[in-house]
């Protein structure tokens, strides 16, 4: 027993990272090394650079115990963002909680397209449908302080989280958060320069084939129905009643939904200049349509 204790006391940052990486790989975790580093940095309240500069630093028994619990949760395929309670998006940190969709890097393409569309409008009015953690609206508020933003969600937990994130980033007064399904909270005649959304667009049958981490996120924010396009259709159908003439609708889509998304906007007979924006990998990611003047 004494020999075991002496050996365990020699566990350094380097030893822990190597062991955890191997353990995570056996569990099928693709980002094994990155996850090991993020969790250990969080456990020690340091950044990842500190780990590399202090490879030979031994961990105390209490540090090992705390880290062991984080590793256990990750091994059960709980997302790292939920374990540490935060997620980086647009080089900013957002609160992440179980039950609210975690912001993805792909959604930054939607943010970029939204900011470009708003750039030439003085005091633009933006409606975000399905705000989730609030990341999109918050980034827009930070990058375009003149924008007047309304962000909706059907889930009270998501709205609470979005409001907390807005306060965290100092833009709570720039965004009006509204509880409700799509356009239901709005009166007839209420109009916006732009409507954007990262709607649920994963086909129902596909969800069961995704990585286990998906089980920790809200199905409502992921499941787009049999073809993944149910909510996209509803947003497109209702948008003409809430856009100003010449206003734009932008929606994130799956990489294999380009043709269907184009068709949906065309079938409304209300949109022109329908375009697809690709992500960094060259895959279709955002569909944009402009309301006929």
From TrEMBL:
InterPro entries reported in the protein's UniProt record: HemK-like (IPR004556), N5-glutamine_MTase (IPR050320), PrmC_N (IPR040758), RF_methyltr_PrmC (IPR019874), SAM-dependent_MTases_sf (IPR029063), Small_mtfrase_dom (IPR007848)
Organism: Desulfomonile tiedjei (strain ATCC 49306 / DSM 6799 / DCB-1)
Amino acids binding substrate: 198-201
Top EC class for this record: transferase
Gene: prmC
Domain Methyltransferase small: 115-201
EC number from the UniProt entry: 2.1.1.297
Family per similarity comment: Belongs to the protein N5-glutamine methyltransferase family. PrmC subfamily.
Pfam families reported in the protein's UniProt record: MTS, PrmC_N
UniProtKB keywords: Methyltransferase, S-adenosyl-L-methionine, Transferase
GO terms of biological process kind: methylation
Role of this protein: Methylates the class 1 translation termination release factors RF1/PrfA and RF2/PrfB on the glutamine residue of the universally conserved GGQ motif.
Protein name listed in UniProt: Release factor glutamine methyltransferase
Catalytic reaction list: L-glutaminyl-[peptide chain release factor] + S-adenosyl-L-methionine = N(5)-methyl-L-glutaminyl-[peptide chain release factor] + S-adenosyl-L-homocysteine + H(+)
Release factor glutamine methyltransferase N-terminal domain: residues covered: 15-85
Binding site for S-adenosyl-L-methionine: 130-134, 153, 198
CDD domains the record matches: AdoMet_MTases
GO molecular function (one): peptide chain release factor N(5)-glutamine methyltransferase activity
